[in-house]
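Intended use. Records like the one below are meant for learning the mapping from a protein sequence to its folded structure. Do not use them to infer anything beyond what is encoded.
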Amino acid sequence: MNAVDTNVLLYVHDPRDPIKQAKATALVASLTNVALIWQVACEYVAASRKLAPLGFRQEDAWRELSRLETIWTCVNPEWNHLRRAETLLATRSISFWDALLIAVALETGITTIYSEDLVGLGNFPSLRLVNPFAT
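Structure written out for the chain above:
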């Protein structure tokens, strides 16, 4: 199963970097068997306000989430995700939010997360962290 981080979803609607926008758009359109992690959905709506001056509003983010709901599976938070994140925080030098995202992936069978931010956090069993914008 695949997942994308918030930054990938935002680049789809951010025209300031046409190359990243094109790559993000192509990636999101091509992925199959995708899990939308609840945390990513929340961050996406919250961060969409930064794109309002560029014509992408929170209403547009909500509409996009409704569209994704028809083709992606939503992964909701569970207690075991927090416990796994706690373990990751105790053993690695990563932020809480990154630990939670990785914990959810490890606990739910997500095998690949596409993110500009997570690459470089180390290796995780059965999980690939891929920067789709790397050259």
